[in-house]
Amino acid sequence: MNAEFHDIPATVRVSVCMATYRGAAFVAEQIESILTQLAPTDELVIVDDASPDNTVEIIKALDDRRIKLHEATKNQGYVRSFGQAVKESRGEYIFLADQDDLWLPGRLERMLSALGDADVVASNFGVLGGGDRGRVPSLKASDSTHHVRNIVGIIVGYRPYYGCGMAMTRAQAEVFLPIPSFLPESHDLWLGLCGNVGGSIVHLDEATLLRRLHENNVTPRGWRSLGTILKARIMILRALAEAIRRAKSQNATY
């Protein structure tokens, strides 16, 4: 078993993992949309990345025992914060959530149902207010088993795996962690690689959340420079090699 995890109480079915930073404007609304779908024994694990605003105070004011807040003493970046949140989680199923989106009703149960047949589930998203998705294509359920095609799509950059629309089983989290240290971004593409290399991922045609698009989104909305794109593709190829290595290691233990 991966030493990243502590003992897991059987009563925790779902852990929602969130990284926050300068999230004061929208975090309360997002948390409320999540908590309405969680059972009393589920948990929302939040790692705040040393926010300089009052994000932490807003989270604490919600005063819900299901919220497990961890405050980083210094800024470590959102990828490391997500990794820490997953590490601290205790649930059988682990959902990733951004700080500024809204969960749609029925998201939790729909994705849990999908995780009955796979270790990773990835859904589509809508845009809050009905705005344009821009250049982002939609995931198709029919592509779920096309693992090589999905991996090529990740490398090229046209397969839209967004962490805010993804969840995994505890077994998959043991492969997912630790997130490779050479990844300063794209924890969601890393999870997509792990799921496809392991041959256990399901795409959902429907949207399960609404993304709030604004100037402070971590995911860039404009075109990147050619140098930045090439650097990112090399990073993804390294991640693919690591996902293959971990998959082989996991299979060797069974």
Descriptive report:
It is a single chain. This protein has 254 residues and is an alpha/beta fold. It has one domain: Spore Coat Polysaccharide Biosynthesis Protein SpsA, Chain A. It has 8 helices and 8 strands; from the N terminus they run βαβαβαββαβαβααβα. An 8-stranded mixed β-sheet has the order 3-2-1-4-7-6-8-5, with helices on both faces. Helix 1 links the parallel strand 1 and strand 2.
Write the layout of secondary structure elements.
Layout: E1 14-20, H1 27-35, E2 43-48, H2 55-62, E3 67-71, H3 78-88, E4 93-97, E5 102-103, H4 107-114, E6 120-127, H5 147-156, E7 166-169, H6 170-176, H7 187-197, E8 201-211, H8 226-252
Parallel strand pairs: 1-2, 1-4, 2-3, 6-8
Antiparallel strand pairs: 4-7, 5-8, 6-7
Helix content: 25-40%
Number of domains: 1
Mean pLDDT: 91
The CATH topology corresponds to Spore Coat Polysaccharide Biosynthesis Protein SpsA, Chain A
The end-to-end distance, rounded to whole angstroms, is: 11 Å
Total beta strand runs: 8
Helix segment count? 8
CATH superfamily: Spore Coat Polysaccharide Biosynthesis Protein SpsA, Chain A
Strand order of the largest sheet: 3-2-1-4-7-6-8-5
The geometry reads as: globular
The gyration radius over C-alpha positions equals: 17 Å
Descriptive keywords:
single chain; 254 residues; alpha/beta; Spore Coat Polysaccharide Biosynthesis Protein SpsA, Chain A; eight-stranded mixed β-sheet
